[in-house]
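Handoff note, outgoing to incoming analyst
You'll be picking up this chain. Sequence as last confirmed:
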Amino acid sequence: MSNTTTDTTADAVNAPVLSKLEDGVAHITLNRPDQANALDDATINALAAAINQACDDTGTRVVLLRAIGKTFCAGGDIRMFETRLDELAELLDNLLVPLNKALVRLQTSGLPVVSAINGPVGGGGIGIALCADFVLASDTMKLRCGYSAIGLTPDAGSSWFLAKRTGTVYAKQLFFMNTPLDAQACLQKGIVDAVYPAEQLLDEATALAKQLAAAPKHVMQRTKFLVDSAGKLSFEKHLDAERRYMVASGGEAASHEGIKAFIEKRKAVFNNA
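Most recent structure output, in case you need it:
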């Protein structure tokens, strides 16, 4: 499927999440622009389904997370919460179970993930935006946590990913104080990896995703596992994992092509190896 396009939403342009697989890149797009791409139950279920589908499809080599409109994601749909206050705890539990499972699936899939934050992001949208290996932002991007202002706590991995990128002390301060940060401040703090003019963001993110998709899939997955597990295994076990992956890679066509291309001074063509 590496050279095909699979669009699961061609007949559902009004779906809360759009998804398609194009040249190895699974495009997953939040599509509630009139509601700031807030996460209601339909959006969360559609997002979880799109992530799971991307992970299931053997043709997926990279996942690109993006949004339509001027806001990436405002977080949970507070208007929906207000209409269901009597059952809010149960509602939140029912929403977070499928979302959390999908996020774990994405993180453990080994697939490189790119996010394109096209505008303001808050609440659970932070976790969705920062779960990526490459976080690109537009110059209109702003981050505000907002949880404590409405009496809730972080979700969707927002506390995990923000703490990993900024350190625990600064992450706590952001969650406690709900301090808004613009794109340049986020870049300086390491929350995002690059900032582009709004009109260039999607092109830059797509180009990066395609570049990653051109690399050998198994090599990218193994490398991601090794780096993500650094410090979690003993050094001896980590070295053993490195050895096993190196040996496995050495027996595959991708390494043979890569070595030949290096010797022949040409660009390697991996053909989704």
